[in-house]
Write a structure and sequence with these properties.
alpha/beta; 7 helices; 7 strands
Length: 241
């Protein structure tokens, strides 16, 4: 759904409406969102961040990259991941979505929310909702994929929850080596710590990534963070942790 104006202008309209009618800004934002066809502002912001962010982020990715996409719940990080897969398929590449979070039906619903039918891309899209997703599983599933394939893993922290799998650090080192060797792009959706305060900074950053167990985030080549429709890119993670 195309917005009637850039999101910064919609926010400005909401602030004016809030002052004119003496209502809380959150209510004014929801009114603007309703006018644009969304149930609430958070949905509008998440959809905007996912759509505008995916095209720009995809243009910056190169074969072999490991990419981190972080946001608090409801900010559009899963939609952005799906949109990245769509951008890959538009470019004639394979898009793969690994998820430990959603069932197949829920993923299809999110595609519909984006106005996209993966079937239109022929056999370029693969969805994997296996309970066995880990580094070994991902490598096995992608072993026959062509260079330039883009795979999204939803999400990073869930790789670390099964006792029988190696530590997250070992899994990510293995996936980094595989991505570089085979020329695939691996995008990891990530949780952000609850301590993140949007009043202190408009978007979270690498310091806000939730890590139950140690992980050197310099393994990632690039990062992208979302919050309330804002998208912040980190072109190089090395040296920032």
């Amino acid at each position: 759904m195309k917005l009637s104006a850039p999101i910064y202008r919609l926010k400005r309209e909401a602030r004016v409406l809030s002052r004119q009618e003496g209502i809380p800004l959150c209510l004014a934002l929801d009114r603007i969102a309703a006018r644009e066809g969304f149930a609430r502002w958070g949905l509008l912001a998440a959809r905007h961040a996912a759509e505008s962010g995916a095209e720009r982020l995809f243009s910056r990715l190169r074969p072999g990259n490991l990419v981190l996409v972080g946001a608090r719940p409801g900010q559009g990080k899963t939609l952005l991941g799906l949109n990245l897969a769509v951008e890959a398929m538009k470019a004639g590449r394979q898009g793969v979505f690994f998820t430990l979070e959603y069932a197949e039906r829920e993923c299809r619903e999110r595609f519909r929310a984006l106005g996209v039918d993966p079937a239109t891309f022929g056999g370029l899209f693969e969805l994997d909702c296996s309970d066995q997703i880990c580094a070994e599983h991902i490598v096995r599933r992608l072993s026959a994929c062509a260079p330039g394939t883009l795979a999204v893993v939803d999400y990073l922290q869930l790789l670390d929850q099964r006792r029988e799998t190696p530590e997250l650090r070992e899994q990510m080192q293995a996936l980094k080596a595989f991505a570089q060797e085979r020329g695939v792009i691996l995008v990891f959706i990530s949780q952000i710590d609850r301590s993140y305060d949007p009043a202190a900074k408009p978007c979270p950053d690498i310091d806000d990534v939730r890590l139950p167990n140690p992980l050197d985030l310099r393994l990632f080549d690039k990062a992208c963070f979302l919050n309330e429709g804002e998208v912040r890119y980190v072109p190089s993670v090395a040296g920032r942790t």
